[in-house]
């Protein structure tokens, strides 16, 4: 039983743990590996060449041996964003990031896992000639040594630890110096019993791969000391562990040890030394942020490497990434996967297809307090192509120990790389000639080339390359088992999931029309298309916004009619073919080409009008469908028929003169409209130059429909990120007349993400999660397939909470509204309070923060006016619910609130008697008017609450009326009489009065002269009209005599 359990555990290890799906494809030119492509962003890709032949002076710098450039399969590298990386391997590589409660520390000899991610490329490379040593930093007694190395060598080597009681310089000289007898250096194992060393290490890959070598040494646990190669594949005990214990217990050791490697041959060594960012303490909020600049429009992609010392708890997050731009764009990602292991480096990619430009801020907020950040790197996104900085590489390999590709799946991924010509252009600036794509088993040419060296261009039919058969999937996301695309085709015109044939589309063929219907010839529309589930026929008014739709099935026959349309209205129509699997693959619902058609009355015989020997086709009143063509055939006794075709221009009448019309001759006239409706008439010459004919009438029925859903009767709201609520503000009786909502779809970038049935009004539909910042389109359809469209932007839960907030009104005056902000808002955030009048579009803004108090007053409003009020988040422009409230009407002016009087000299005075608080609600003065009989002395607008107007001197005994009107038309007036008390003014007035009398006499004389002139002109006009009428009668008599005379000549 124990044996069976062991085998079962081994099977689990093989099938579940060691078959991580990752692929590594080489791009070769001759014998050189130019690049490698992978779908694994978790691990670095290392390049290899024979180190025995490597010469730093001829083959490139040692510092750049392991450095690479990375771009995606489409050739995009995102180089301009690398200056914003947080590189904790390079000195100063993260100094521009602003850190809060985070400190930087080196890993040194602490217990950290090895680096296998993107940081590996930046670890310095040390070149060692044969017989040289790689010395490490000494470490103190009573401390443990943990260290990791990447080694590329095809020779054997040793790991040694030297106690410090000898002079190290002397030892190093005699240990390293080669001699003619021993060119790789002498070894003094026989007289160095105190030297702790391993057995000779022989790496199995012999320089064909970078080997991972891990060390563990502790004087407190000599039996646990070991060297591991490739994470435990081979373990080497350090000398005789009992001897180590004896040496440690002796007094030859002092304070520290000196560890080193000794290599027999040429070797390259990378020691995993780097920095990490750790939180300062458990109770502080740790974060780091960096100003970034998207100098050109770029998709967002960031890799973050991190390590956890303890597992995540339920609902606990490791960290979050937030991007905000100056243009108001926003992205937020959260890393929270409790299943991820501890004490191991994890790489998580945050990627968005949204494109960003301009400046912004990227922020990482730490959630778990024992989390450690290893680095942040901007990436090009998608699958990666890794290119070494130096030429001459012979091989590449992944640093993953669990890379186990399935041969079929690897071939599919190889095919995807093989049709990416942009890889070749990026590598050598030209096409893919002489370049190959190689998997683990074999190589093939890039698509478009063939031959032994892939030099020969080829056509598809004779090309040996098979990559054109590989399905082109969106973002190269395909099912690794069968090669089918996962989400959509790269070309949306192809049929998902095979993506090898185009989506079927057809164009409607309009056959006929009536005042309230349009008929489609489905046989001519579909052509050879058949074997589908149904076709959805969509149509709307050309200048309208709402689409209607009807379902057509093959069993419906040759013709299909759209009924219940408006007369003389142009409609847009298109078809969408629903295949038998449409409910499984909604991506294949692609609309076809649109056509336009106009409802109208088919032509009948009344469109043909006769006038002697001519006929006219007239549709000037647009009563009928537009006439298109006239066919005329003349048939005369003893002659061959003569036929002609006449094209009719839009909106124009056509007149035809039949000069050959004689008794016995007849004409067959056929008129057709734009929908092939045809009326045919036999025009007979009943007499010389006289035509006669008859025409039958036509009639068409109407069909009533329910009221289509629209924004005035149906509302959609979002309770949270997941739930859509359909409701109506119509009465119960009116709802019976409205078409009931029946289905709902969620669309992003023309792709249907979700669809479900809707159970009428007051229904809730859960649509699933959404991506923060993305815009979605919600389409609601009713039972008659009429549709409504709504836009929805996915926001954070806190922002949804803000959207639900409603301004609370505390008090209303005539000119101001007071809001209760303590009931409106829950947290202290800077917001904008906006308000606008009805029938206007401009919003006026007040800034508010909770620290400003619990009340906010909106001032300078107009009385008795409806205002809309809402809140807006300052940074995100998220809006709360709107409320509407009307200010109170102002208090009308009256004798109690207004003082009015005259003073000498002739001065009108008015003053509001109300106190300051009452003035706020009092109607403001708008107009002042002072009259005396029919004489207006003053009539003007006013803007103050206290008025003083100096008038002309008054006339003794004359009465004056002083009238004031407020902004709402309320009037208060007073009167007065000019008395003896102003005698000085009266004397002056007398002169002015005589002048006025003279002016009045002159005015009266002028009016009399004008009246006499008008009477004279009227008499002259009457005489002229009598003479004109007499001439007209004489002319009519002359024309009648001439007509009779011509008629007599014709009869003769």
UniProtKB/TrEMBL annotation:
Domain of life: Eukaryota
UniProtKB keywords: Membrane, Signal, Transmembrane, Transmembrane helix
Signal peptide: 1-22
Transmembrane segments: 1001-1021
Protein name in the entry: EGF-like domain-containing protein
UniProt source species: Cloeon dipterum
């Amino acid at each position: 039983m124990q044996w069976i359990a062991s085998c079962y555990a081994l099977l689990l290890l093989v099938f579940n743990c060691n078959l991580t799906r990752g692929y590594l494809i080489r791009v070769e030119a001759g014998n050189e590996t130019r690049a490698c492509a992978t779908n694994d962003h978790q691990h670095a890709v290392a390049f290899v060449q024979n180190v025995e032949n490597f010469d730093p002076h001829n083959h490139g710098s040692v510092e750049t041996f392991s450095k690479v450039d990375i771009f995606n399969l489409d050739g995009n590298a995102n180089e301009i964003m690398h200056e914003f990386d947080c590189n904790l391997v390079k000195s100063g590589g993260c100094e521009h990031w602003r850190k809060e409660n985070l400190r930087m520390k080196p890993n040194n000899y602490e217990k950290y896992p090895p680096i296998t991610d993107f940081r590996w490329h930046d670890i310095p490379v040390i070149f060692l000639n044969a017989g040289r040593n790689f010395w490490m930093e000494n470490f103190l007694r009573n401390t443990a040594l943990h260290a990791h190395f990447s080694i590329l060598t095809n020779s054997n080597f040793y790991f040694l630890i030297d106690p410090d009681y000898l002079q190290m310089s002397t030892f190093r000289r005699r240990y390293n110096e080669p001699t003619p007898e021993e060119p790789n250096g002498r070894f003094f194992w026989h007289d160095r019993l105190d030297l702790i060393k391993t057995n000779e290490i022989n790496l199995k890959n012999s320089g064909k791969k970078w080997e991972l070598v891990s060390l563990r040494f502790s004087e407190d646990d000599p039996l646990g000391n070991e060297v591991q190669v490739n994470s435990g594949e081979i373990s080497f005990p350090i000398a005789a562990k009992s001897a180590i214990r004896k040496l440690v217990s002796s007094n030859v050791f002092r304070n520290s040890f000196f560890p080193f490697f000794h290599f027999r041959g040429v070797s390259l060594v990378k020691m995993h030394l780097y920095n990490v960012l750790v939180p300062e303490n458990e109770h502080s909020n740790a974060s780091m942020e960096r100003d970034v600049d998207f100098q050109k429009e770029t998709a967002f992609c960031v890799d973050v490497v991190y390590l956890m010392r303890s597992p995540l708890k339920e609902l606990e997050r490791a960290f979050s990434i937030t991007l905000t731009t100056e243009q108001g764009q926003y992205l937020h990602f959260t890393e929270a996967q409790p299943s991820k292991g501890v004490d191991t480096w994890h790489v998580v990619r945050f990627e968005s297809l949204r494109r960003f430009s301009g400046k912004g801020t990227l922020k990482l907020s730490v959630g778990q307090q024992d989390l450690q950040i290893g680095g942040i790197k901007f990436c090009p996104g998608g699958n990666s192509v890794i290119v070494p900085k130096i030429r001459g590489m012979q091989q590449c390999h992944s640093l993953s120990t669990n890379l186990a590709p399935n041969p079929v799946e690897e071939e599919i991924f190889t095919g995807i790389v093989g049709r990416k010509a942009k890889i070749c252009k990026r590598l050598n600036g030209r096409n893919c000639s002489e370049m190959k794509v190689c998997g683990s088993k074999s190589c093939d040419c890039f698509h478009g080339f063939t031959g032994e060296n892939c030099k020969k261009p080829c056509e598809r039919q004779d090309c040996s390359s098979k990559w054109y058969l590989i399905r082109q999937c969106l973002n190269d996301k395909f099912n690794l088992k069968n090669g089918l695309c996962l989400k959509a085709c790269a070309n949306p015109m192809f049929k998902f999931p095979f993506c090898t044939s185009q989506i079927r589309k057809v164009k409607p063929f309009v056959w006929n029309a009536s005042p309230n219907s349009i008929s489609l010839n489905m046989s001519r529309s579909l052509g050879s298309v058949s074997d589908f589930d149904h076709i959805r026929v969509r149509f709307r008014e050309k200048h309208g916004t709402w689409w209607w739709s009807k379902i057509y099935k093959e069993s419906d026959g040759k013709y299909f009619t759209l009924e219940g349309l408006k007369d003389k209205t142009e409609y847009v129509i298109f078809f969408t073919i629903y295949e038998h699997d449409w409910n499984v693959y909604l991506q294949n619902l692609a609309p076809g080409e649109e056509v336009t058609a106009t409802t109208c009355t088919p032509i009948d015989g009344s469109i043909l009008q006769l006038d002697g020997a001519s006929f006219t086709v007239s549709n000037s009143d647009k009563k009928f469908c537009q006439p298109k063509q006239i066919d005329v055939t003349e048939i005369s006794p003893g002659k061959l028929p003569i036929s002609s075709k006449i094209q009719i221009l839009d909106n124009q009448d056509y007149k035809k003169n039949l000069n050959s019309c004689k008794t016995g001759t007849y004409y067959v006239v056929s008129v057709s409209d734009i929908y092939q409706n045809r009326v045919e008439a036999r025009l007979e010459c009943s007499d010389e130059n006289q035509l006669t004919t008859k025409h039958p009438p036509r009639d068409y029925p109407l069909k009533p429909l329910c009221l289509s859903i629209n924004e005035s009767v149906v509302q959609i709201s979002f309770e949270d990120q997941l739930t859509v609520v359909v409701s109506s503000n119509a009465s119960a009786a009116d709802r019976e007349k409205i078409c009931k909502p029946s289905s709902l779809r969620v669309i992003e970038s023309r792709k249907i993400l979700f669809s479900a049935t809707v159970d009428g009004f007051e229904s809730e539909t859960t649509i699933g999660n959404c991506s923060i910042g993305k815009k979605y389109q919600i389409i609601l359809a009713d039972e008659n397939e009429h549709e409504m469209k709504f836009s929805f932007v996915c926001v954070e839960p806190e922002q949804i909470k803000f959207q639900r907030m409603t301004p609370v009104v505390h008090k209303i005056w005539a000119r101001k509204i007071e809001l209760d902000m303590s009931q409106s808002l829950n947290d202290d955030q800077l917001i904008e309070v906006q308000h606008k009048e009805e029938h206007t579009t401009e919003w006026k803004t007040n800034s508010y923060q909770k620290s400003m108090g619990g009340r906010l007053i909106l001032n300078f409003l107009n009385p008795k006016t409806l205002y809309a009020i809402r809140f807006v988040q300052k940074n995100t422009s998220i809006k709360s619910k709107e409320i509407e409230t009307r200010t109170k009407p102002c208090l009308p002016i009256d004798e109690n609130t207004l003082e009015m009087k005259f003073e000498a000299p002739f001065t009108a005075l008015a003053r509001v008697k109300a106190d300051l608080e009452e003035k706020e609600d009092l109607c403001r003065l708008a107009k002042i008017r002072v009259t005396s009989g029919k004489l207006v002395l003053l009539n003007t607008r006013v803007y103050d609450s206290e008025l003083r107007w100096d008038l002309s001197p008054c006339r003794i005994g004359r009465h004056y009326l002083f009238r004031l009107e407020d902004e709402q038309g309320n009037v208060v007036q007073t009167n007065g009489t000019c008395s003896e008390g102003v005698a000085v003014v009266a004397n002056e007035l007398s002169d002015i009065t005589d002048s006025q009398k003279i002016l009045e006499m002159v005015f009266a004389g002028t009016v009399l002269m004008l009246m006499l002139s008008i009477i004279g002109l009227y008499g002259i006009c009457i005489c002229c009209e009598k003479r004109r009428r007499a001439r007209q009668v004489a002319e009519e008599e002359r024309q009648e005599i001439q007509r009779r005379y011509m008629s007599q000549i014709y009869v003769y």
